[in-house]
Design goal:
The protein is α+β, with helices and mostly antiparallel strands. The protein contains 3 helices and 9 strands; from the N terminus they run ααββββαβββββ. A hairpin with a 3-residue loop joins strand 8 and strand 9.
Amino acid sequence: MQHVASRPNPPSGGNARAQKIVIVAIILFALAGLMSGFGVGAATRPHKQTASTPPPQHKNSPPITQTTPKSSPTPKTDPILANGIGCPNPTYSFAQNADGNTDYKLKALIVDQSISKQPTPCGTGKTIKATGLTCKLWLTDNLDSLHTLSRAQLSPVSNLQQTFPKEKQGALNFDGGQQQIQPCSPTGTTSWSFTLSPDLKSGTYYLAVVADYDGKVFNWSWRSIIVQRNHK
């Protein structure tokens, strides 16, 4: 019988233990790397910022200035222009003597047409107590000239200085420095004192009065008189 000598094999238990150690080391190394990776990732990852609504900012609005709208001034209405002028209402002596010596007086009440424009052309109204009116007294023996007196004779008011159609020039001689044309009295009653020229013939005449407001509105009226020529 033949015996074969052989080298004995190294014990198997030592190799297994060494492999286990290597495997454990690899696993630990891997875990260490993995954990370090997580740490780095956590450190480098940007934090998610939760969007928050900023608190409302209250702006100080400028105070609202309430301005009262300026109302345009209401233009003042001129009462004379608005109401017009009525026919002057004279009081006088009906019979007059053309002797150049006898004094006569005529008073004319100047009124408006604030109550009514009727009857035309005089209307009815109240006494005008105002300045700015001009009055004129004249004498004529021609009634038609009074009916046909035109605006051209009354406007502008300076035209009152002109002799009216058929006016008897020099027939009225005024006393005390009075004038034939004068401002109407602000009392409402304008008066004249005068004598009649001895050159007048006996007959029917007409004393006429006009009230003119700056040539814008005016009116006139007349009264008949009987002129006697009783010269001494």
